[in-house]
């Protein structure tokens, strides 16, 4: 740029910036910048000022965003505190409602009030203690009822007197628990009273449990090894029985058992057999509102059984690997049949046979919603297809009835877990 034109450019820029020299800026220093010849110098200076203003606005917006972020974090903390307080209030409300129901029910445990395997709300120590005492009382009462049935068949003055004494103790304990519920609802009692009363009740329960166990031992010693039944009173994922013996490889089978249940919807899983790599090698299950099904190597056949009426029923399923032909019997009568159920697939050996639970993994992975609820007895397995006459003999408790040649029903073959119990089998006694 020629020197003269540069001087004129600097002069024009100075005039634009000073606006006619209306303000006194003191000593002034001019900075000259090369710009294209055709550019409007005053407009360029104004644009420069607009960029500066824009930068200032961006800084202000950034400051506003930071302030709003701090406000949001503060509000989140407040919401978290309020949510925690609301949860505590709901938990306390739930406990109060539960205590009221316990009093209305006479301290007796309601159906379905077993362990919640999906997680519980937090409970106060006193409420938790009362819940445990209620469960213990219900268990003892169930055992006493079974002993009472046994005593009716084996009339003994000593057994009857013990039964009356135990019943009296249970009634006293129920009154104490009910009284404690009322005290909690009225807000009375302190930690010291809670501890003393809990120790006293637990001591009485321990003594009661020991007496009932003695009677049960005498009952067990006096009965044959196959005259027993398993009881699964609650739908849990921890109550089951395991057959000590595994199955061999089988190209045909018959599985029979006695069942008694009033559970709904679905009685659950009377038995499941899992092998490495296949949890559903052989399963009998009635889940939800679906009909009872037999699974072999994950292949399914629907069965015509209707058994959840609270009465004893005898069921049998036969199957052969050739064409996958199966038959289903209820109470000695064939009610259904089919084919193409896992054809040419032999039942694999070296697995785990569980009563009362469905296995998702070998020997475990139980789901409470699929658990069997009710009573089960005379579970037998043969490695062949039984004839209709042989099935009828089993269902009518005939003296000609056969025991399973693969799995035979015997106390020495069964291990029980999680509170499942053994009692004297009663179905055949009712038939005969």
From TrEMBL:
Keyword field: Calcium, Coiled coil, Disulfide bond, Glycoprotein, Metal-binding, Signal
CC cofactor: Ca(2+)
Molecular-function annotations in GO: metal ion binding
Residues in the signal sequence: 1-22
Cellular component, GO, one term: glutamatergic synapse
Keyword Nucleotide-binding: no
Stretches the record annotates as Disordered: 90-122
Protein name: Neuronal pentraxin 1
Organism field: Prolemur simus
């Amino acid at each position: 740029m020629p020197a003269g034109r540069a001087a004129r450019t600097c002069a024009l820029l100075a005039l634009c910036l000073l606006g006619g020299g209306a303000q006194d800026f003191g000593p002034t220093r001019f900075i000259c910048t090369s710009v294209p010849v055709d550019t409007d110098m005053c407009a360029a200076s104004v644009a420069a000022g607009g960029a500066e203003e824009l930068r200032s606005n961006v800084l202000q917006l950034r400051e506003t965003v930071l302030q709003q972020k701090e406000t949001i974090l503060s509000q989140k903390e407040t919401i978290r505190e309020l949510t925690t307080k609301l949860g505590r209030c709901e938990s306390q409300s739930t406990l109060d409602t539960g205590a009221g129901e316990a009093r209305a029910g006479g301290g007796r445990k309601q159906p379905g009030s077993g362990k919640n395997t999906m997680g519980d709300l937090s409970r106060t120590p006193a409420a938790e203690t009362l819940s445990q005492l209620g469960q213990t009382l219900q268990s003892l009462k169930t055992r006493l009822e079974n002993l009472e049935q046994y005593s009716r068949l084996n009339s003994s003055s000593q057994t009857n007197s013990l039964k009356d004494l135990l019943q009296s103790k249970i009634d006293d304990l129920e009154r104490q628990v009910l009284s404690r519920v009322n005290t909690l609802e009225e807000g009375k009692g302190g930690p010291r009273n809670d501890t003393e009363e809990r120790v006293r009740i637990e001591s009485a329960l321990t003594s009661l449990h020991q007496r009932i166990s003695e009677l049960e031992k005498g009952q067990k010693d006096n009965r044959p090894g196959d005259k027993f039944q398993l009881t699964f009173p609650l739908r849990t994922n921890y109550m089951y029985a395991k057959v000590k013996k595994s199955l061999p490889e089988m190209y045909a089978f018959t599985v029979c058992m006695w069942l008694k249940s009033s559970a709904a919807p679905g009685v659950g899983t009377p038995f499941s057999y899992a092998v490495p790599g296949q949890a559903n090698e052989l399963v009998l299950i009635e889940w939800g509102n679906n009909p009872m099904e037999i699974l072999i190597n994950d292949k399914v056949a629907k069965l015509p059984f209707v058994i959840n009426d609270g009465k004893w029923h005898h069921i049998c399923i036969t199957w052969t690997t050739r064409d996958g032909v199966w038959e289903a019997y209820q109470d000695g009568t064939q009610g259904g049949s089919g084919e193409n159920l896992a054809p040419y697939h032999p039942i694999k050996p070296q697995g785990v046979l569980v009563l009362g639970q469905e296995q998702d993994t070998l020997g475990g992975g139980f789901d409470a919603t699929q658990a069997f609820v009710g009573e089960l007895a005379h579970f037998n397995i043969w490695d062949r297809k039984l004839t209709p006459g042989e099935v009828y003999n089993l269902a009518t408790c005939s003296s000609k009835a056969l025991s399973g040649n693969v799995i035979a029903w015997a106390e020495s073959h069964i291990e029980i877990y999680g509170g499942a119990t053994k009692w004297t089998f009663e179905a055949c006694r009712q038939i005969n």
